Amino acid sequence: MNKMETQPTNSIVQNILRWFVPVAAILSFAAWMYVAPEGALGKLDAIGYAVCHRIDARSFHIGDQQLPLCARCTGEFFSAGTALIFMGLVSGKRNKLPSRGIIAILILFFLAFGIDGSNSYLYLLKQTAPSGALAAIPNLYVPNNTLRLFTGSGMGIALAAVLFPVLNQTLWREQDDRPALEWKSFGILVAIIAILDFLVLTESPIILYPVAYVSALGTLSLLVIVFGMLWTMLMREDNTYTSARQLLLPALSGLTLALLMVVSIDLVRLQFTGTWSGFPGLNG
After folding, report:
1. N or C of the chain: less Cβ packing under 10 Å?
2. What is the DSSP string of 209-259?
3. Is 284's pLDDT higher than 70?
């Protein structure tokens, strides 16, 4: 009896959500468009602004226009977005984490990201307060945007390599129990990211314009995936999907929550700083 009562209730909830979620997605998209600065790059800036310090000296530029994310975050989210596209094309519904050997390399990417980030942050603090207690702590090396880009890219690959199989484990009814990344595909992916990083270092507008879009939209995509998986599990619809066409509702739910988070952080940060640029006083 309880089971029979639950089924109609679930059906009613699902029907309501089919109408509510698209409307919520449109409203959250409109809020983002309204809050964000003018222009296409301005809209991307609003995404980067929610997750990145956006310090001018630590960012690449198209002329006088700063990219939406700093050099490290550009590498991280540009690589994550590229890796997710690559794995979507190559790996399909594969749902296993990479082998131990690949995981070891991903851990090295993570450590390089952490070491370079910590060293860079210490350097920034010492520049901000040159006579403070931190002045006596030596830096490992002078940080630069090249290292930020490459270590960020390694972290982006690691994020995508873990997130993609977890996404497949969450969504699909029929599981493909093979590693989402094998040595050959992993090598190709790393080579692609490395080549793209070297192209970014040319700072050619022809390269930086698409990088600006992929990095900002890569940021948004990661948020959409995480929130979409959360919504799927809350609705108890994990491991029920059989085709990509069925993913519209969880994708819109993830997009709605991601945009609401971005807009909320943007408004709070803008209230405290009064600028869409980096944090005032941090220019190192």
Report:
1. N
2. HHHHHHHHHHHHHHHHHHHHHHHHHHTT-TT-B-SGGGGHHHHHHHHHHHH
3. no
